[in-house]
Amino acid sequence: MKAEEIRRKRVSAFATLAEKEFEAARLLIDTHPEQAAYFLQQCLEKLLRGLLEMQEVASGPTHNIQQLASLLTEAGDWRKRFSALDELSVAATRYRYPSPTGTIGTINRDRLMFLLGEVEELKRDAGAVLTKFA
Questions:
Q1: How far apart are the first and last CA of the chain?
Q2: What pLDDT sits at residue 75?
């Protein structure tokens, strides 16, 4: 398989994973909101990694939305749109592990519902770009 074919396949895979992670968030939002926030963060991360793969930009191991968005070379308004959702970066760990003092993080349900809508809109737009490329 040629490098371009592999890149297209990876972009397609990132789009598929983003879709699945968004769906997981939607299904969990009422019963497990913190886990839903984690899957929203993962959805954004996969969309960003797909866009970066399209641009042939190495993204490294970070899970930080702002850091990944800053790597976009053909940013347009993508950088701004993803950066606006950077508050979800903490969901990569805050809701999955206890704090040093043993507390478990929580998220405001109204805020989470707002974020769900914002991520859905971004997923629709970025997902279309990824799908077209793949």
A1: 15
A2: 64
